[in-house]
Amino acid sequence: MTTYRIPEPVSPQPVGAQEVLLVANGDLRLSANQTCWPAQVDMEQKLTAAFASEGITVRRAHPYDEALGHGFIWNQRMGMDVFQSIHPDAPLIVAEAVWQYSHHVLAGLRDHRGPILTVANWNGQWPGLVGLLNLNGSLTKMGVTYSTIWSEDFTDEYFLSGIRQWIQGQHIAHDTSHVRDLAVSKLPTAEAELGKALARQLKQQKAIMGIFDEGCMGMYNAIIDDELLNPTGIYKERLSQSALVAGMRKVSDAEAQQVRNWLDASGMRFVIGTDEATELTDAQILEQLKMYIAAVRIAHEFGCAAIGIQYQQGLKDMVPASDLAEGLLNNVERPPVFDPETKEELFAGQAIPHFNEVDEGAAVDALVTNRVWTALGLDPATTLHDLRWGEHYTGEGVDDYVWVFLISGAAPASHFINGYTGATSERQPPMYFRLGGGTLKGVSKPGEIVWSRVFVMDNELHADIGRATVVALSDEETERRWRATTPQWPIMHAVLHGVTRDQMMARHKANHLNVAYAPSAEVADQALTVKAAMFAEMGLHVHLCGDVKVGK
Question: What's the rounded Cα separation, in Å, for the pair 321 and 316?
């Protein structure tokens, strides 16, 4: 008889009655983790003090690493190993002051039986709020129960009341009364019929979104399984980022220079230097423009209605950042790209929707926006943004809570004040982008927008949709907000209609949201109506958020 050596199970120590464990998930990139670590330390100290005031001891479940210079969980294997030492019934805090790769901790959180609390500091310096929303969206998609909370200094009553609920074994209750389910039957007939017709056309003719490698930056919530996606009429073309690099190598310097000449003539300004390690250079720009040309040609070759470049892992070590290319793709007015054989201009007069970081929820949204806005005769240029941060602002006719919507460069120039003339390209921060590359940076123009988010919940597709106004702030305030976040990136000052800061944070199931402009409030309401009807006819559960005048 054969005797097998059975592995001994790991026996984590139980926590005390007045004790909770804390994990800190981080970036995969060492430079980012080291640079952002002081902000995490500051947050954890304040968080620990807040729990101590309630008689609870917070104990870190993994130590600071002297060799690495930070105390983050920085890869998936480490996350799995850390969770082996965590008792599955222990109360657990996931504390985030930085961007984090959710997949590092999802294996442990999926199996955890104890109460989970996700926490972020309300600070724009590093994308901790963005990381929190991504993690929350990922947990929602997995069907894992969690509570969530945020705070500027961890002493306000909103935060303290929330953690008291959690300490007592309750789910933290947030106000989400701003959300109501769409009643399609109550929509205006003409707009509803147009939305339904566009959805039926999509299901019949079908559309392809080109995915240059899935799963960017641990964004589990940004992957939509085919079984959920395909019934809408949308299918994936799974492309390799190595094919994008190969396509770039087929683009001549002369072709890239023609695109640069077009941008120079349009009035766009490049902030260039000579140090490849820290400054934007002409060589980096030409590589980015080769990526733009290659991406257009690949989209045409595979018949893609939208494309998404992952950029980060792998591609970040091969070529400069993809953001300039992304912003150009998202605009109707953009440098022409020609077929290398037939010399035909590809996608002439059209935007090619690009979904940053291959966020497939944003992809579905961008594709639908493109169809709806085009059908209404509107500029279909759209982009996603991070919900980066925000503060109340008074001045320039504004007295409201103004969000900072920020993204790494994928915003189209038509969203900016003065278009390309108001756009600059600055080098991406070396902390995140070792090989550099420029952004497509600008200040978003005042106006009316529709915002929305497609996400997975209860193993079904959902869409939240609402209205907002982009406002103009003073140059000084804009610069202050840029300096408080990432000044190289395009910015949007947004006031949500009928949705408070805490309502938005409590409800939103992603780090991103999509935005598109309309020429007036009336037209924005009309476009929202058609878009909501199209989503619903595609099979999505549609939720109207805030002061939406239609569908009541």
Answer: 7
223-241 confidence digits (pLDDT tens)? 999 999 999 999 999 999 9
96 lies in the same domain as 200: no
CA dist 463 and 453 (Å) reads 5
Using alpha carbons, list the distances in angstroms from residue 392 to 178, 405, 500: 19, 14, 11
Quote the tokens at residue 257. 């220079």
Q: How confident is the model at residue 312 (pLDDT cuts 50, 70, 90)?
A: confident
What average pLDDT does this structure show over 127-154? 98
- What is the Cα–Cα distance from 88 to 373, expressed in whole angstroms? 49
Give the three-state DSSP class for 82: helix
Report yes or no: 87 and 13 within 8 Å, Cβ to Cβ: yes
Exposed (0-12), middle (13-18) or buried (19+): which is 358, by Cβ within 10 Å?
buried
Closest CA to 451 of 392, 531, 391, 376: 531
Question: How many Cβ atoms from other residues are within 10 Å of residue 91's Cβ?
Answer: 19
Three-class DSSP labels, 100-166 = CCCHHHHHHHHHCCCCEEEEEECCCCCCHHHHHHHHHHHHHHHCCCCEEEEECCCCCHHHHHHHHHH
d(CA 362, CA 219) in angstroms, rounded, equals 12
**Domain check: are 151 and 199 in the same one?**
no
Q: Pick the closest to residue 211 from 295, 137, 142, 280 (CA basis).
A: 295
> To 10 degrees, the CA torsion angle through 43, 47, 48, 51?
180
Phi, psi at 286, each rounded to 5°: -60, -40
Look at residue 191 and tell me if it is in a domain: yes
Q: Look at residue 9 and tell me whether its pLDDT is greater than 80.
A: no
Domain residue limits at 376: 184-545
| Residue 149, domain CATH | 3.40.50.10940
Q: What's the per-residue H, E or C state across 508-521? A: CCCCEEEEEEECCH
30-52 and 157-167 helices, crossing angle to 10°: 80
Residue 46 DSSP symbol: H
User: What's this model's pTM, rounded to 2 decimal places?
Assistant: 0.96
| Residue 386 host element (H or E) | strand 382-395
Q: Can you list the alpha helix ranges (DSSP code H) found in 250-318?
A: 253-266, 282-302
Quote the CA–CA distance of 157 and 439 in Å, as a whole number. 39
Question: Is the pLDDT confidence value at 464 over 70?
Answer: yes
Written as six digits, the tokens of 17 are: 């009655």
From 186, 210, 141, 129, select the one nearest 389 (Cα to Cα). Answer: 129
Last residue of a domain, one of 111, 139, 167: 167
Answer yes or no: are the C-beta atoms of 308 and 238 closer than 8 Å. Answer: no
* Tokens encoding 530: 């058609």
Is the pLDDT at 497 greater than 70? The verdict is: yes
Q: Are the CB atoms for 516 and 373 separated by under 8 Å?
A: yes
Which residues are CB-neighbours of 483 under 8 A, at least 6 positions away? none
- Domain count within the chain: 2
